[in-house]
UniProtKB/TrEMBL annotation:
Keywords: Cell membrane, Membrane, Transmembrane, Transmembrane helix, Transport. Pfam families: BPD_transp_1. It is found in: Cell membrane. Residues 1-21 are annotated as: Disordered. Its main location: membrane. This is Sulfonate transport system permease protein.
Length: 273
């Protein structure tokens, strides 16, 4: 009599849903706050506890906070922040629009690329502050001059990213668009620009950072208000607490505007890419 057959089948595993375990709500934000909190703690220790620096060299965090509250109560801080944000947004929008248009032209047209790219590349190599004397001579460092300088800073990152991305778009994708009857501007907006959304937004975010950098350069050279002006005035008056306050506000505003642009990027990726 033969022995009963043994069941050699592997034990069944419970079905998996494929979902990642949920993390803590706001965990990513909390993780990103660890380093700023550590820097703030170290700042407080070396100034207020151990006295490594004098109040003139590096004021304690609470001194900077008090300076900020004083400027807020007088309304001066809101004025400085408002005019700086306005200048950055105007210059960023103007420079990005120009970079998008010229980058698209050179990225789509081989003739335009061969004709204009060497000249644009030469201008891109010019240091930012080298434009200041020319802007002073032609426009002056009023509002128009400041916005123009910021626009120059924002132009080149957008131009470079869109030009390079469009030159490397999959030609089969372009041919498929043409097969559906898309040509010219419609082909650009329907097929080519959606195909290069990630590098375009990388250029836009770099352009935004450049806009804040050029803002400070323009306001350091000639302004009666703005965060760059607050930096210069605080240095001349020996108010290191206000100087540090201006630096902190520039960092916060720069991060806030970058986060807003990042939200727009995620929406664009979900819609087009």
């Amino acid at each position: 009599m033969s022995a009963p057959a043994q069941d050699t089948a592997a034990p069944t595993q419970p079905p998996t849903t494929g979902k990642k375990p949920a993390g803590l709500p706001g965990g990513k934000l909390l993780l990103g706050l660890i380093v700023p909190a550590a820097v703030l703690l170290a700042w407080w220790l070396v100034t207020d506890v151990f006295g490594v620096f004098t109040a003139t060299q590096l004021p304690a965090p609470q001194a900077v906070l008090e300076a900020g509250l004083g400027l807020m109560s007088s309304g001066d801080l809101w004025g400085h922040m408002g005019i700086s944000v306005q200048r950055v947004l105007l210059g960023f929008l103007a420079g990005s629009a120009a970079g998008l248009l010229l980058g698209s032209l050179l990225g789509l047209s081989g003739l335009a690329d061969r004709l204009l790219n060497p000249t644009v590349g030469a201008f891109r190599a010019v240091p930012s502050l080298a434009w200041v004397p020319l802007i002073l001579l032609w426009v002056g460092l009023g509002e128009d001059g400041k916005v123009l300088l910021i626009a120059i800073g924002a132009f080149f990152p957008v131009f470079t990213s869109i030009h390079s991305a469009l030159r490397h778009v999959d030609p089969h994708l372009v041919e498929a668009g043409r097969a559906f009857g898309f040509h010219g501007i419609r082909l650009l907006t329907t097929v080519q620009l959606p195909a290069v959304v990630p590098p375009v937004f990388s250029g836009l975010r770099l352009a935004l950072a450049q806009a804040w950098l050029f803002l400070v350069a323009s306001e350091l050279l000639g302004a009666s208000e703005g965060l760059g002006f607050l930096l210069t005035e605080s240095q001349n008056n020996g108010r290191t607490d206000r100087l540090l306050l201006a630096i902190v506000m520039l960092a916060l505003l720069g991060k806030l505007t970058d986060a807003l642009l990042g939200m727009l990027e995620r929406k664009a990726l979900k819609t087009w890419a």
